[in-house]
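dumping this here before i forget
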Amino acid sequence: MNASKISRRWLLNSLGMTIGILVVLIIVLSLAVRGYTYNGIQTAIDSRSEELTNIFADYGRRSPKEFSKAGRQYVENFPGKESMELMVFNSSGKVINTSLGFAPDENEQMPDYKAALQSRNGYGTWTGKLSSGEKVMAVTRVLHSDTGDFVGGIRYVVSLSAADWQIFVIVLMLMAAGLVVIALVMLSSRYFMRSILTPIKEIGSTAKRIAQGDFNARIENIPNNDEVGELCETINDMAKELDTAERMKNDFISSVSHELRTPLTAIKGWGETLQGGGLDPKNFNKGMDVIIKETERLSGMVEELLDFSRMQSGRMTLTMDRIDILAELGEAVYMFSERAKTEGKFLLYEEPAMLSPVLGDVNRLRQVFVNILDNALKYTGRGGTINVAANEAEGFIQVTIGDDGCGIPEKHLPNVKKKFYKANQTVRGSGIGLALADEIMTLHSGSLDIESTEGVGTVVTITIPTIQKLRDHLQEEQEKKQMEERKMNDDSAT
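structure:
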């Protein structure tokens, strides 16, 4: 249905315009041919009638009777009697001789004769139909004596039937040529529309399958390199991305379900054990510690999911304040020191003497440090080392957290900061931690960069501007804006 609508619009617009142009062109050419043909006939008659000026030059001093006699001789000796009819008028306006040999109908109208009588130069012309229905062109020349008396006249009449037939044939030829052009345009349009409508139909069916959840649907017959081909490739890329996102979403749901099930199982198990009673104080306290730790773990996962939801909807807000990033980094390292010892790993921190203050949300920045340190410990084997360092250069503070763990394969590295993406499905985690950390750093006008080599390790660099750097940037923006305003004012004054 949509294809037929497009075809109708194409026919109404393109083909309709073509037909309109051809009709106008045929009409103009037909009129031009008619005018050219009639002008040629008019010129031929005029050239014949101008002979009277020479032939009857001295008849201004002769009598009408002498003109009538000479007029009969002129008609008898006229060489073009086959192509045109001649009539000779006497001084009374009566036809006294014709090249056809018989007198014309007395009721026949002769507007050219009347026009010649009223004209100063004795010339009159007329194109129209006779009482018989024949279309003719007539020219009349009248002569006057030296005293101004009417001596007589000669009328030239040419039938336009043959000329009109030629014009009709030419018009038919023009119409035939127009029909050929329309046929060629229709064939070309049909091929062109088919080259568009066929992929559009396939695009529609493929898009419908994608909308129904079939992300493996692809457009197979992609046309040549044009806009339609680019659209087909874009839809295929979209389907591929949707398929990847669907798999990532399913992996995310599976991972989160597993992550939630583990602490819930521990909490339920120890809860049932404690409910049974009969435990000594040591085991009771152990069970309560497990319940509290797993509850905190659950709370952290829920909070991470809430943060991700805020990030997706653009509702993540920051409480900006002047903070000592060195203190927050030190506290985060301290939080993981005991865990590193328990897991048999080395957490080394090269603490600088002092760093410039930054403008940020203390809880969000701590969340970034915790997330990166947690990943470093998760992906580093027993006996491995995690190095933490911080430095300041050119108005930016850089915190680097590197490990000698399993590393990230090169094919996964460009996607690790995408939501739901997990390069290693065997390690616990929801796959949204790095996406959150990257978003938080972006909101702080900073960045989070990851460099990794599989089997060697990973280095994460967290960059954030100092307060002074932000102030300088803000001042530069204000000065730039003021310069633009002054320039606009100067241009207005000019």
